[in-house]
Amino acid sequence: MRSARSAVVPRQGAQAIRRALAVLRILAAGREHGVPLAEVVRATGLTRPTVHRIVHVLIEEGIVERHERTLRYAIGNQVPELALARPRPSRLLVAANPSLQRASAEIGDTLFLTVRTGNDTLCVDRRIGVYPIQVLSIEVGARRPLGVSSAGVAILAAMPASDARKIVAANEKRFEAYRTDVATVLGEVTAARRLGYGLREIGLVQGTKSLSTWIKTPDGQPAAAMTVSAVRTRLGPRREQEVAEILLREARLIEQAIGG
Amino acid sequence: MRSARSAVVPRQGAQAIRRALAVLRILAAGREHGVPLAEVVRATGLTRPTVHRIVHVLIEEGIVERHERTLRYAIGNQVPELALARPRPSRLLVAANPSLQRASAEIGDTLFLTVRTGNDTLCVDRRIGVYPIQVLSIEVGARRPLGVSSAGVAILAAMPASDARKIVAANEKRFEAYRTDVATVLGEVTAARRLGYGLREIGLVQGTKSLSTWIKTPDGQPAAAMTVSAVRTRLGPRREQEVAEILLREARLIEQAIGG
DNA sequence: CGTCCCTTGTCCATAATATGGACAAGAACG
DNA sequence: CGTTCTTGTCCATATTATGGACAAGGGACG
Fold first, then answer.
1. What's the pLDDT at B9?
2. Which residues of chain A lie closer than 8 angstroms to B60, CB-CB?
3. Which chain B residues contact residue A21 at CB under 8 A?
4. A91-259 and A15-83 share a CATH fold
5. Mean pLDDT across the stretch B194-210?
6. Predicted confidence band at B4 (pLDDT cuts at 50, 70, 90)?
7. How does the average pLDDT of chain B come out, rounded?
8. pLDDT category of residue B137 using cuts at 50, 70 and 90
9. How far is the first Cα of chain B from the last one, in angstroms, to the nearest whole number?
10. Could you tell me if residue B8 is left (phi over 0), alpha (psi between -120 and 50 degrees) or otherwise beta?
11. Which pLDDT does position A184 carry in this prediction?
């Protein structure tokens, strides 16, 4: 056996597989409604014949579905079937459950648990609060490029600046669909690093404001974020401070639950 | 645009992707514990360097995980993350729920809902009955080659004989791990076709007996099966008849719920 | 109803990619 | 210390995936 290399060299000989996965991740961001071919081409940077070929092979294999009406492509039902091979719910969900419960009761606004997956954020849990106006636009399964939500900003802020810059650069093509750009995102990340938590004064939904704390695994990498979303008027400076303290406290508890 | 072909020609230009998916399906059958490399090689018929390369690229991409201790490969946590793009629970699960409820209450033994996925059966729901001895060995997520369980036999019996033969032949390499073979399976399928339901006198677990009815989609293809498993002594000829009648009745109701 | 501009789908020569035979090396066993 | 498992790697080669170029459908508009 050869000696191990110190630098991690990506394995050769599987370009097609990597490309197929890149396509799948873009399709996943489209949820049930799916994504038109041209959008997949834009987001992945691949050529259209290549994306077309990949997508249609994945349809034959049942990994991708196509909506008859819209011609959009979406994740197929073999994906959840493969997912059944893993134990559910995940360790993180179990570890975070008590914290979400507590924070939701204390804060009263909508709470999200979001994980990092590659260059995306993915909402994996949501708790509705008791306050009568709730921000419900983000659902479990929502997937967005790292950087466009406060959770993404928080996660980027918690990793080495060079890593964050690489991810933001890789997501550049996808930012325009969310009306943002590399410079804006990097500015928000810097601000979050200073504050200790991620913030979006103007949420993805008009008139909302979001606040996120990062959650790190024992190896120091941010793996998730806990977010509060509320109508802007409910998150003035004083309450922002209170909410941040609760989220920070619970984030540390979740980190301990994962680590122990 | 060219005219559509009458015969469905599998798309060219994606051998690697198809192979990667074949590997993933074998890994899925290994659930949490995973599968050793040599077993993947056997089951897929690919060469070892090829499987090794595919599996390690999938690890880099987060689609596959490796257990440190055993060196076995298993489905990684990005798969459920991709699966979140789809609405849960599935339409079938919703449609079958009342039937499972009713049948479970009437019969009292363990009930399974199993779907066909490619050349496999996959358990997607399980209901524990009230009788004090329950067969619990098959869990949600359990995946086996079509033909080795009574559910698989039922599904094969409900499709055209030529299709069934093709699938059984394709699974040949995987049968020996379940101590069966092509001839035995084809015999059971023929018997099931005559009976109207699938039967295994000797279940995968010693001393158990299973009985399955198929469920067809509106296009006439069997997509799932409903199964009762019990200790053998509880399923004598008279009770077998009773249980079969209940399962057949509920299977037809599920078919209507899907079709309407 | 012709033109523009969007989309998706297909062909095929060619370059690049994935392939697998052969070899290396550890581990368990007697 | 050979035997027989397993996993991991190299690299010349031929098979495979690639993408430029073209085809074709459909909607908006004057």
1. 67
2. 10-11
3. 61, 63
4. no
5. 88
6. very low
7. 92
8. confident
9. 35
10. beta
11. 96
pLDDT for A168-196, tens place per residue? 999 999 998 898 999 999 999 999 999 99
- Counting Cα atoms < 13 Å in the Cβ hemisphere of A243 gives 26
CATH number belonging to the domain at B15-83, selected among 3.40.50.2300, 1.10.10.10, 3.30.420.10, 3.90.550.10: 1.10.10.10
Is B148 within 8 Å of B180 (Cβ atoms)? Answer: yes
Partner residue opposite A77 with nearest CB, options B16, B30, B86: B86
Closest CA to A22 of B26, B74, B60, B73: B60
pLDDT tens-place string over residues A148-173:
999 999 999 999 999 999 999 999 99
Q: Where are the domains of chain A?
A: 15-83, 91-259
pLDDT tens-digit series, residues A235-260: 999 999 999 999 999 999 999 999 86
Which nucleotides in chain D lie closer than 7 A to a protein CB?
Answer: 5-11, 15-21, 23-25
Which residues of chain B make contact with A138, given a CB cutoff of 8 A?
none
H/E run at residue B190: helix B182-195
| Cα distances (angstroms) measured from residue A32 to each of A24, A76, B133 | 13, 9, 41
Footprint of strand D on the protein (CB under 7 A): A 1-2, 4, 13, 15-16, 19, 46-50, 53-54; B 1-2, 12-17, 36-39, 41, 48-49, 52, 56, 71
Given a cut of 90, whether residue A2 has pLDDT beyond it is no
Alpha-carbon distances of A157 from A111, A121, A123, A171, A212, rounded to whole Å: 20, 14, 18, 16, 11
- In the chain, the amino acid numbered A179 is R
DSSP string, B200-252: ESS-SSTTEEEEEEEEE-TTS-EEEEEEEEEEGGG--HHHHHHHHHHHHHHHH
Tokens 């997956």 sit on residue: A117
- Residue A9's pLDDT band, with cuts at 50, 70 and 90, is low
Cβ contacts (< 8 Å) between A29 and chain B: which residues?
85
For B2, phi and psi rounded to 5 degrees? -75, 160
pLDDT digits (tens, 9 = 90+) for A44-91: 999 999 999 999 999 999 999 999 889 999 999 999 999 999 998 999
Distance B208 CA to D2 C1' (A): 46
Indicate the CATH number for domain A91-259: 3.30.450.40
Cα–Cα distance for residue pair A190/B84, rounded to 1 Å: 31
Is residue B240 within 8 A of residue B211, CB to CB? The reply is: yes
Nearest to B63 among A21, A62, A84 (CB): A21
Q: Which of A86, A121, A125, A144 to mutate to test the interface with B (most CBs of B within 10 A)?
A: A86
Task: Determine the Cα–Cα distance for residues B4 and B43; give it in Å rounded to an integer.
Answer: 35
